[in-house]
Structure formats: structure tokens, C-alpha cells
Amino acid sequence: AGLDLAKYPDLTPKSYEDQRGQGVIKPVSSNEELASQIREHASPFMLNGPAQDVVFDRERYFMATNSRGKFWISQRDFAHAEGTFNPALNLKNAWNKIATGKPLTFQDEYAVESLWHEIVHNRQTPTNAGGQNTVSRRMMETVTQWVARRTYPRFMESIGGKAAHQAKVLKEGYGYKTYIRNFDRLLSVLGVNDGPDALAFFEEICRTQARKSYQSAMVDYLWRSAKVEATKSTIREVLGKTNYSEEAFEQWLGFYKLTH
């Protein structure tokens, strides 16, 4: 059947056919083979030029990108409640299972989502997001992760797979977990629907706005969309607290009188 191109206006029939080849990705046995296929299948989704290089390392991030076509994928083991997550190994497992029509584990699928997160960065304006611990960078990563969790099925479909674990990814995904849970909690408290309109808005932010401006765009959207009374100043202040624990964030919501 293939991918429903009507759902993905940024993909043309030609770019999709170029991307999907014979419609089935090939099994891989080495990092080099995986890197080659990532370059081939990720490039049509990228807006800042094609994938140039894929580097495998043992850094403390899952994956990373320079937003201009270079990717880094960690081969380090990360301990989680569901078991060990190894981004490179789980991505390779996912690739081979999709290629041979086998079901993916949660960790396998999350590795695909992690790669898609980096592809989303390559769909953003390649502008500075601020320092590592700044609010502007946290807001940029929050938007990126929030969008990636909702859109990675597009990439999975394009390589012949299907997102079987998306409900769990949305609520329990590893990357920026606290940021996303607190952001989702704020949406709920404000009565902001997290459906297609919100996704379309945040995807548009990624495509068109400088990364340091994400916070202002988020504040404006939440303020316009809120079903409860909250000032822009309050929303901006609460967004600045999403790095706190979920329990502490709940206290901040009470402090700003968004909960009772």
C-alpha cells in the first residue's frame, strides 16, 4: 500500500519513491551498512540538506546531530526499568526486524524514535538555541521531542514498519522525559488540546522559527489556546520550571494558581 502521501505534504511522490527504493529496507550486519541506509532513507525528510555522515561513538547522549546532515549514535548501554537501552544496538535490531517483518520491542522502536528526533532537528532552521542549560535550549528540545514522539510513525511507515508502541513512547519515552511530562501536564491544566492543531503549530515552529524564539511562540500559543484564565507572564514562568521533578512542578502549578 505504501505511505499515504496526502498526510505528509513535505514528501513528493518522487522523493518518496527515491527514499523507499524497492519499498523494503535491507538487513544490516555492521555499523557501516546501517549508516549507509540511514543516509539513504533519512535524507528525503531533511530540510537542511541530505544526511552526510553517521558516526558511532560511546557518548552519554542517545543520539545527536549538527542539524546540517551529520549524526552521532551512541553505543553505550543505558539502564532503564524495561531493561538496557543501547541506541546503536537497538536501532540495528529495529532495522533488521523491520526488514524481515518481525515485531519490535519498545526499546527497538524507541531507537527509531530517537533517530527521528535527530531528523526533526534537521527539519528546523539551523540556528543557535542557546547554551546547554538555558531555558531557550530546553524549550527547543521540548518542542522537538514533543513533535518527534507524535510523528516518528511517518518514518517507520516509510521504511516498511509500523509504530506498535507509540502510546507508551508518548508517555514513557526516555528522551527529555521530565520536560515532556511537565509540558503535557501544563497543557492539561490549561485545557489545551494536544491534537492535530497543536502538532501542526509546533511543526510549523520547527520549520520556520529561530530556535531561540521557541519559548515566545509556545507562550503565545498556550495563552491563545487556554481554556482557563492565565496570563502570558504566568505561562512563561511555569514553562521555565519544566526541568523540575514532576512533584515539584505540581507545586509550581499550585503556586501560580493554575491548580487548586
**How many DSSP helices?**
11
| Strands ordered across the widest β-sheet | 1-3-2
Helix/strand class: mainly alpha
User: How far from one another are the termini?
Assistant: 50 Å
Strand % is 5-15%
Stretches where pLDDT is under 50 for at least 5 consecutive residues are: 16-23
Blueprint of the fold:
Layout: H1 13-20, H2 31-42, E1 53-57, E2 63-65, E3 70-74, E4 78-80, E5 83-85, H3 87-100, H4 106-121, H5 135-158, H6 166-172, H7 177-190, H8 196-208, H9 214-225, H10 232-239, H11 246-255
Parallel strand pairs: 1-3
Antiparallel strand pairs: 2-3, 4-5
Helix pairs in contact: 3-4, 4-5, 5-8, 7-11, 8-9, 9-10
Brief sketch in words of this structure:
The protein is mostly helical. 53% of the residues lie in helices and 7% in strands.
Properties at a glance:
single chain; 260 residues; mainly alpha; globular
Can you describe this structure?
The protein has 260 residues and is mostly helical. Helix content is 53%, strand content 7%. It is built from eleven helices and five strands; from the N terminus they run ααβββββααααααααα. A three-stranded mixed sheet has the order 1-3-2, covered by helices on one side. Strands 4-5 form a two-stranded antiparallel ribbon. Strand 2 (63-65) and strand 3 (70-74) form a beta hairpin. Helix 4 crosses helix 5, helix 8 runs antiparallel to helix 9 (214-225) and helix 9 (214-225) packs across helix 10. The longest helix has 24 residues, at 135-158. The relative contact order is 0.10. Mean pLDDT is 93; it is low at 16-23.
